[in-house]
Fold nicotinamidase.
Amino acid sequence: MSQGLLVVDVQNDFTEGGSLPVDGGAAVAEAVGAWVRERRSAYTAVVTTQDWHVDPGTHFAAEPDFVTTWPVHCVAGTPGAELHPGLGDGFGELVDVAVRKGERAAAYSGFEAVTAEGEGLARWLERHGVTAVDVVGIATDHCVRATALDAVAAGLATRVLLPLTAGVAPSTTDAALVELRDAGVEVVTAL
């Protein structure tokens, strides 16, 4: 089995001090960075996903409902859209490909993202022989959830490494974990 690691949306705007912060986001950035440095050789590929909004239409709202509309976040080319520095110096050198999503529409799943050359994540993983993925990042109940569901739907053996994620709220995180397990995603609660 060829294992990939999907590092989902560990961006400045999704951590404390960002425009759409998730409590524990900065700690997750540090933990993910340490995990990748310690375990890099266990993965065939390491992929980062990023929200990269140019004009996502109704995804941004002045009065967001925090379900389908959100405050302005991760605008392409801004510091808020960049990967969090807590991932550590040299993290980028350990990453095989960065994919970006949501330029002109809401996008939650990393499988909606493309490489700089326009290749979709599913095709990139297939081309590199990846048959299983670990999913980590922010937020457990939104983009991590959507990415893991799409991974298992694509036929990949999929695990969410829960200690390397941060959720928006306990109730929505708990509901997401039930949905993930029901879909066949393995939720790893201890590393």
Observations:
- Strands lie at 3-8, 45-51, 97-101, 132-138, 157-166, 186-188.
- The longest helix spans residues 25-39.
- The chain is about 25% helix and 20% strand.
